[in-house]
Amino acid sequence: MLTLALVGCVQPPLPPPPEPVPLTYAEQEQPGPAAAPSYPSWSEVQSRQVMTPLAGGDANPPPVPVSGGISLIGGASLHKTTVSSGGGSIEFEVVVFDSRQHALKVIDQPEDFAGGGQITASMRQAGAIAGVNGGFFTPQFAPMGLMKADGKSTGAWQANKLLTGAVVVSGGKPQLLWNAEARSRQSAAQFLQAGPRLVDAGKAVPSLERIKHTTRTFIATDGGQRWLIGLARGTSLGELADTLASSELVPGFRIQRALNLDGGRSSALYYRTSDGREHSDPGWSTVRNYLGLVPR
């Protein structure tokens, strides 16, 4: 049995170890499901998204603007909302984007004492207009699981009850894949193992922990071109999964798949509005990588 810890809160020593270290994730009180549910393939999820052809026969209509949000560079938008859950409430800040207008990018941050505020400098350097902290890392500041940033591979593939999915970008196309699907896609230019799964086929993944309430970062998609990345404050994994599956955080956006990225003190969000102003909600600890949004 691997012992897992929320390594985003650890200030690691140098140098990185030559061999993988045991996982120490603080949320291991989360019970793993006795029998993992059956997850449909990515192609099955996408097939549920019916595209209505335009008059000229174009099956890929232009992105539909989302109302009620703060306009970001390139047509993305920032939305803030509070959702009641379990007698309390969850505060959300999410960046909504269309994958035909923006690309996802894994941003490596190898400086182990850079500080939580490093998200701003990292996003500027990558040319990103929005981003969140990425996946977990070990006490020695090595990525937990496989990370690929612009084709450069760091870490190694892992499969356990925590790392159950991956953000994969190949040929400029982002996908949210589960382990069985992602393992064969390790050659992609951008690859980030993370977890656990939160929503699959529009339904909350069962048996997630419901005790530890903290800030969490996550990524979600409607199974087509619409995506969101963001923060959820004051929630357990189970409550977050239920809320994402049952609520429309953004009008007309029904989540088909969602994956937890990180949580606790390292949770961070950055975005740049359409008039060029920056907003940064940095974490309290250094993180190994970020997931950024870059205009095409």
What is the helix/strand order? HEEEEHEEEEEHEEEEEHEEEE
Distance between the termini: 43 Å
Shape descriptor reads globular
Strand % is 25-35%
Q: What number of domains?
A: 1
> What is the β-strand count?
18
What are the segments in which pLDDT stays under 50 over at least 5 consecutive residues? 1-65
Radius of gyration, whole Å: 18 Å
Strands side by side in the biggest sheet:
1-2-3-14-13-15-11-12
- Mean pLDDT, to the nearest integer, reads 81
By secondary-structure content and strand pairing, the structural class works out as mainly beta
Number of helical stretches of at least 4 residues: 4
Largest sheet: 8 strands, antiparallel
Report the helical percentage: under 10%
Give an overview in words.
The protein is mainly beta. It has one domain (7-30, 70-295). The chain is 10% helix and 34% strand. The protein has helices at residues 42-47, 118-126, 179-182, 237-246, and strands at residues 70-71, 77-85, 88-98, 102-108, 130-133, 147-149, 152-154, 165-170, 173-178, 190-194, 197-200, 203-204, 214-221, 226-235, 257-263, 269-272, 278-281, 289-295. The protein has an 8-stranded antiparallel β-sheet. The chain has a 5-stranded antiparallel β-sheet with strand order 4-18-5-16-17, with helices on one face.
